Amino acid sequence: MASRVIMAKAMLKGIVKAVPSGDTLVIMEMGDTASTGIPPERTIILSSLMAPKLARRGEKQTTDEPWAWPSREFLRNLCIGKEVKFQVDYTLPQRRLEFGTVFLGDKNVAFYVVAQGWAKLKTVRNLDKDKGEFSPYLKELKKWEDKAKENRAGCWSKDTAGSVRDLSPSLVGDPDREHEIINLVEEYGGREIKAIVEYVKDGSTLHVYLLPDYHHVRVFVAGVKAPSIRNWIVEPLKTEAEDLGRESKHFTEIHVLHREVRIVLEGVDEHGKLIGSVCYLDGQRKDLATQLVENGLARYVDCGLLLPPDAKRSLKSSELEAKKSQLKMWKSYCPPPTDLGAIEDQYFSGEVVEVVSGDCIVVATTDPDTDSVAKRRVYLSSIRCPRSVNGKAKEVLKKHLLKHQVHVSLEYSRKVKEFGSVHFELQSGSAEDFPLAPPAGYQHHMTNIAELMVAHGLYEVIKHRDFEPTSDHYDELFDAEYNAIAAKVGMHSDNDRPYVSNGQAMHSDKKYVVA
């Protein structure tokens, strides 16, 4: 038998980070923090106790021992996130196991567990007693166990119905079961469901049990990507990025590992990954993706239609603030240089006298003092008109804007080009008439031509880099594009649409044209 080492009964303080089973706690020591901000951890098995074992997931899957899940849940609910005191009673060095006593306040945690019948006492031989290989509170534990037996509590119950979870095969890392993940999204997608986080692979990748049916799945946190963690066997060199990966993982662990969270299954991406939004309680409800990005521990990634526009904007805004503050992964970040110019006469009205292209018009303005006419070329801000629909977009602009009065608000100037939003009065009775916010400085209720075109799939919204100027109506443009993609209108249609010239576009499919 492997020899054990008896430890001095030094009392330590820590916070319970994880509860792997009904007799084991992972405790972060207090007062000794590494340079990365990650405190050392100790895995403490409660001395002289033996709880039933949970099912093992993965290639060598097993089933729960009777009462394993309620045993773990009792200890988890009792201790997770709590400050405790603990002492190491003895160790098994060859297996790197530490056995100890843990106190929650002034109460021995082992007493709670045994009294509720969620763990049994190990048989202690005389040889073990001679070596001190048992709990120093063995007599008290024996009394609590006798009471639990008498009350048939927990593991001592004669009625074992429901003591073992009915677990379906794990869906983690099994490409042959991707259809089952899609079925889960169809069943639960779009609404919050309870889950228990069982494992944190990195800051933005979780293995969870979806409750109440215990579906075991891997969830990628929607809208973010945390730094990866190296495989030390394959890539043994430690880097600054590795430290960030460990810190990001630690951040996620201390907030969600072995805790109940709320997850919204947003969908499955093109690689078969299950994407989900994750919220947890930390005094108040918090979004994991937002917290990671705000603290510089993850970057925003676009996941298409799997995330609503307002959630995307929130994450992008949080990332920008983290970059400005040079937090963590952005500590060396420098804003890119710009080629912006000054804007003169930011707001003006006039008549559209020419439509140059699908995203550019010429507006004639009259000086009230001299009656002189000046022409200004205006490019619609924050949008791009693809060549495939440029001709159709140009025809729509001619129909709605040519020889009509418009109100222009210039938003930025680049080199010799001026970019702005153009608002006009949409003719009453038009099916596309919908309320939009008027431009700054005007009291009239107007329609933003760029938003109208985006909504009909004739424009793409430019994904601006950080610190680049954007349209004042950038959020509305994004919402319109999101809806256009979802509705598959215009350029987002499933139909293959070959490139046509401007002349051909005037006589082709009218679906692109805003009536």
TrEMBL record:
Transmembrane segments: none annotated. Coiled coil: none annotated. Residues 10-158, 191-332, 346-494 form the TNase-like domain. Pfam families: SNase. SMART domains: SNc (SM00318). PROSITE patterns: TNASE_3. InterPro entries: SNase_OB-fold_sf, Staphylococal_nuclease_OB-fold. GO terms for molecular function: nuclease activity; RNA binding. This is TNase-like domain-containing protein. GO terms for cellular component: cytosol; nucleus. One of its GO terms (biological process) is mRNA catabolic process. It comes from the Eukaryota.
